[in-house]
Amino acid sequence: MADARRNEQQPNNEPGTVKLTSGDGFSFIVPKGVAEHSPTIRNMLQVSRGSSSDAAGFTEALTNEIRFPEIKGGVLEKVCQYLIYKHRYVNSPAAESVPEFKFDLELVLEVLTAADYLDC
């Protein structure tokens, strides 16, 4: 599950994980495979191939840390929960009952805006 931390200065030293940080300083460490259910995050984490420079691609690909200055912590938390939900149920058999993903109505507009940006 996502690990929320308020201290955004702490580097992400955990292999196979991605640190997602909100504009208000909350950080969530999620498995890379979970975060990559968002095509936007997946593209940010890709290192360009065929380049002679080690720094090819986004800085995020080298640090496994992505900052979202326009997304609040509560909204980013819900996005992380959805990515975990999607990872869990994306390939589930049709016979398996997939529960509804729920969130507070007060967050609808902000969550939809973030989901649109992250394409998830």
Secondary-structure map:
Elements: E1 3-5, E2 17-22, E3 27-31, H1 32-35, H2 39-45, H3 59-63, E4 65-68, H4 73-89, H5 108-118
Parallel strand pairs: 2-4
Antiparallel strand pairs: 1-3, 2-3
Brief summary:
The protein is α+β, with helices and mostly antiparallel strands and 120 residues long. Helix content is 37%, strand content 15%.
Describe what you observe in this structure.
Helix content is 37%, strand content 15%. It contains five helices and four strands. A hairpin with a 4-residue loop joins strand 2 and strand 3. It is globular and about 40 Å long. The two termini are 18 Å apart.
Structural descriptors:
120 residues; alpha+beta; 4-stranded mixed β-sheet; 5 helices; 15% strand
Report the average pLDDT across residues: 85
Distance between the termini: 18 Å
The largest sheet, given as strand count, sense and whether it forms a barrel, is:
4 strands, mixed
**DSSP helical segment count:** 5
Order of helices and strands: EEEHHHEHH
Q: Compute the gyration radius: what is it?
A: 15 Å
Number of strands: 4
